[in-house]
């Protein structure tokens, strides 16, 4: 829509000789025009071919003794409702519908480079993100992002972002319910966020799932109108950072029931170090050695006296471990106190090929993992229940087990909180390992159900 449309509503009733006047205008105006730019502008405007054609046509139509068709056309165009229609069309065509971005609040520090102003132009579609209040800081955070929704497609909002204001309305002092109301109310116009990324979430999230869905996010645009608002603005076509991150989005799921004789689902136990993963694994093996087998993880830490190669771990050098990481041989790996630990893809495949239930990491259609998060109880209960328990510390140690320290307990609980907030959406079952026997029983019941009951799984797992 542009100038052509505007001309379309000109009255066809033009004074005689208008065309000649139009042609003569630029030279007649020449003495009054001082700058070259203005002169060029006038020439272009009055020399515009479509304008000349239109005026000429109008003159011709007026001058001729009208044929039936011409009379009918003139008649139609002269009707008030056609004129109104064209006039409305032109008004709409000239109007700018770009949303106005409100200026940044004055109290934002100039050094605060992490403030993002985000403009999502919404139609009737919901934003597709949920919010929650951080228990400690009281800040309003983005809690989840719905897959395929407006927020997801934009790639501009991330889980953990702090929501500062919506459409110029500060949200710090508002309850989530009130904010949701604001978000819903602006659904037909503009939704502006000022987000501040908390220091903690700047860390690259650990990559568990690596879904690529860049095709979704294309259509959001940002236009810069007010210089005051340009602290940091993003034109988002595709966000690499988003694609790589383990973003907590909603997934399309479908009921799934394992057919008898079909491959077992991979059972994945995750939890902070020392929480009791090995203990639960060991109990599973003892309880039904025919049914369960485990992957043997790799490590770069030195073998201890009582350990055997291929039983507790495959012991490999740091160099080989790094080469294997580089060659994508590990489903998961991590570094703990200077040593690498990881589970190789081959180890999982070899266990699954024996058609036995297993324990370790992965999340694809091939393995359909059932992820159980083993969570520590509160610190007071850890002190109580782990009084006689021993852990084998990592670095610098030659195999001596030691009792848990207060620091170990605190670290276990805080790591668990971190894991749950970052990856909680991947956990299908959470078992609190307070009393070991109770935790083990709960695990056995859950694993039995995985084999027999119907469970919700991502729909993509059923396509392969
Ligand atoms: N519920 C429990 N009550 C008492 N002791 C427990 C309980 N669960 C585990 N333990 C003990 O805690 C210690 C650490 O457990 P375990 O080695 O299984 O932890 P882990 O999660 O496998 O640790 P890591 O990942 O570092 O190997 C062991 O001595 C174990 O017997």
TrEMBL record:
<dbReference type="InterPro" id="IPR014775">
    <property type="entry name" value="L27_C"/>
</dbReference>
<feature type="domain" description="PDZ">
    <location>
        <begin position="117"/>
        <end position="183"/>
    </location>
</feature>
<keyword id="KW-0728">SH3 domain</keyword>
<dbReference type="InterPro" id="IPR008145">
    <property type="entry name" value="GK/Ca_channel_bsu"/>
</dbReference>
<dbReference type="InterPro" id="IPR036892">
    <property type="entry name" value="L27_dom_sf"/>
</dbReference>
<dbReference type="InterPro" id="IPR004172">
    <property type="entry name" value="L27_dom"/>
</dbReference>
<dbReference type="InterPro" id="IPR020590">
    <property type="entry name" value="Guanylate_kinase_CS"/>
</dbReference>
<dbReference type="InterPro" id="IPR008144">
    <property type="entry name" value="Guanylate_kin-like_dom"/>
</dbReference>
<protein>
    <submittedName>
        <fullName>MAGUK p55 scaffold protein 7a</fullName>
    </submittedName>
</protein>
<dbReference type="Pfam" id="PF02828">
    <property type="entry name" value="L27"/>
</dbReference>
<dbReference type="InterPro" id="IPR027417">
    <property type="entry name" value="P-loop_NTPase"/>
</dbReference>
<dbReference type="InterPro" id="IPR001478">
    <property type="entry name" value="PDZ"/>
</dbReference>
<dbReference type="Pfam" id="PF00595">
    <property type="entry name" value="PDZ"/>
</dbReference>
<feature type="domain" description="Guanylate kinase-like">
    <location>
        <begin position="264"/>
        <end position="448"/>
    </location>
</feature>
<dbReference type="InterPro" id="IPR050716">
    <property type="entry name" value="MAGUK"/>
</dbReference>
<comment type="similarity">
    <text>Belongs to the MAGUK family.</text>
</comment>
<dbReference type="InterPro" id="IPR036034">
    <property type="entry name" value="PDZ_sf"/>
</dbReference>
<dbReference type="Pfam" id="PF00625">
    <property type="entry name" value="Guanylate_kin"/>
</dbReference>
<feature type="domain" description="L27">
    <location>
        <begin position="47"/>
        <end position="100"/>
    </location>
</feature>
């Amino acid at each position: 829509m542009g100038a052509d449309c505007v001309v379309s509503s000109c009255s066809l009733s033009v004074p005689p000789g208008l065309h000649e006047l139009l042609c003569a205008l630029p030279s007649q105006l020449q003495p009054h025009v001082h700058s070259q730019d203005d002169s060029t502008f006038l020439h272009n405007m009055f020399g515009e071919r479509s304008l000349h054609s239109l005026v000429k046509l109008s003159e011709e139509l007026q001058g001729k003794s009208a044929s039936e068709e011409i009379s009918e056309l003139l008649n139609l165009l002269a009707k008030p409702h056609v004129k109104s229609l064209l006039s409305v069309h032109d008004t709409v065509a000239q109007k700018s519908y770009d949303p106005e971005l409100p200026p940044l609040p004055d109290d934002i520090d100039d050094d605060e480079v992490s403030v993002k102003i985000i403009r999502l132009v919404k139609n009737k579609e919901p934003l597709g993100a949920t919010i929650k209040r951080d228990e400690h800081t009281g800040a309003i955070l983005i809690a989840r992002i719905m897959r395929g929704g407006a927020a997801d497609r934009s790639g501009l909002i991330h889980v953990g972002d702090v929501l500062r204001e919506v459409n110029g309305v500060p949200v710090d002092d508002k309850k989530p319910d009130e904010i949701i109301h604001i978000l819903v109310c602006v659904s037909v116009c503009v939704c502006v966020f000022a987000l501040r990324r908390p220091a903690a979430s700047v860390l690259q999230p650990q990559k568990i799932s690596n879904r690529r869905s860049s095709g979704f996010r294309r259509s959001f645009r940002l236009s810069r109108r007010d210089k005051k608002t340009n602290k940091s603005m993003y034109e988002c076509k595709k966000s690499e950072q988003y694609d790589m991150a383990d973003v907590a989005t909603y997934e399309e799921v479908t009921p799934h029931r394992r057919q008898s004789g079909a491959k077992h689902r991979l059972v994945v136990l995750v939890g902070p170090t020392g929480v009791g993963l090995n203990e639960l694994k060991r109990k599973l093996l003892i309880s039904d050695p025919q049914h369960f087998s485990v992957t043997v993880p790799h490590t770069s830490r030195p073998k201890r006296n009582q350990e055997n190669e291929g039983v507790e771990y495959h012991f490999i050098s740091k160099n080989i471990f790094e080469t294997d990481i580089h060659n994508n041989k590990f489903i998961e790996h991590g570094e703990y106190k200077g040593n690498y630990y990881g589970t190789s893809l081959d180890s999982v495949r070899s266990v699954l090929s024996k058609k036995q239930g297993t324990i370790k990491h992965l999340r694809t259609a091939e393995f359909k993992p059932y992820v159980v998060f083993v969570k520590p109880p509160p610190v007071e209960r850890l002190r109580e229940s782990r009084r006689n328990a021993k852990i084998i510390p990592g670095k610098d140690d030659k195999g001596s087990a030691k009792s848990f320290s207060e620091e170990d307990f605190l670290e276990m609980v805080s790591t668990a909180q971190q894991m749950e907030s970052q990856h909680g959406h991947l956990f299908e079952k959470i078992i609190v390992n307070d009393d070991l026997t109770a935790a083990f029983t709960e695990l056995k019941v859950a694993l039995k159900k995985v084999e027999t009951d119907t469970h919700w799984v991502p729909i993509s797992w059923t396509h392969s």
